[in-house]
Amino acid sequence: MTDKLIHILLVDDHPLVRDGLRARLEAVPHFSVVAEADGADDALRQAGEHAIDLVLMDINMRGISGIDATAQFRQRYPAIAVLILSMHDKIEYVSHAMQAGARGYVLKDAPGKDIVLAIETVMAGGIYYSAALARQLARPAVQDNQLTVREQEVLQQLAGGQSNKQIARALDLSVRTVETHRLNIKRKLGIEGQAELIRYAVQHARFEGS
C-alpha cells in the first residue's frame, strides 16, 4: 500500500466502461485518473502529454489490440506500468499480455476492490492476477500430451457435445468406462466440474485434420 498519488490512464473503447472505472477509482484518495483513451494510438499520445504512472488497458479495441499496445508502452514508456482489464479469461490471453510487458491481469467481472488491490500491488512492484486466473495458473502444467490416446478420443467426443452413451457407442466402450475416462481426464487436468471439463474440451481437443 502507498499514499503516494498514482496517476492513471484509462484505455477502453466504451465510454460507459470508462465512466464506471473513473468513478470507482477516484473514490480512492491516492488514485487520480488524469487521462482517458478509446484506443491504443490515443493512449500512446496521452502518455506523451501527461505524467502517467499506470495504464489500465482493455484488450479488444478498434485498431491495435491492447496486448500490442502494451508492447509499445514497454518500448516507448518503460517506466509506465500496464495493467490489463479484460473480459477474456483464457490463459493464452494472460500469457500473451504478460509477454508483452503487462504487470497484471484483472477480469472485468472482478469486484471493484480487486482492481484497487491490483493497482496498488503493481505500483508496489508486484504482479497481480484475478483470483480465477491465479487458480488456473497455479494448476500443475498438465496438458493434452499427458492424456492417453483413449482419453484424447473421449475429449474429442466431449468437444462435439456427445453424451456418455453416445461416446460409448462411438468408441465401442461401456458407459462406465467412459465415465472412468472422464474422471481421469479431470484429475490429470486439475478440473473440478463438468461444465469446466466441457469448456476445456471445446478449447483444446484435437480433431482430425487440425
Give the secondary structure arrangement, pairings included.
Blueprint: E1 6-11, H1 15-25, E2 31-37, H2 40-49, E3 54-57, H3 66-76, E4 81-86, H4 91-100, E5 104-107, H5 112-123, E6 128-129, H6 131-138, H7 149-159, H8 164-171, H9 175-189, H10 194-204
Parallel strand pairs: 1-2, 1-3, 3-4, 4-5, 5-6
List keywords for this structure.
single chain; 210 residues; alpha/beta; 6-stranded parallel sheet; 10 helices; 6 strands
Instruction: Give the termini separation.
Output: 48 Å
Helicity range of the residues? 40-55%
What is the general shape? elongated
Main-sheet strand order equals 2-1-3-4-5-6
Protein model, in words:
There is one protein chain. This protein is α/β, with parallel strands linked by helices and 210 residues long. It is built from ten helices and six strands, in the order E-H-E-H-E-H-E-H-E-H-E-H-H-H-H-H. A six-stranded parallel β-sheet has the order 2-1-3-4-5-6, with helices on both faces.
Provide a concise account of the structure shown.
About 50% of the residues lie in helices and about 15% in strands.
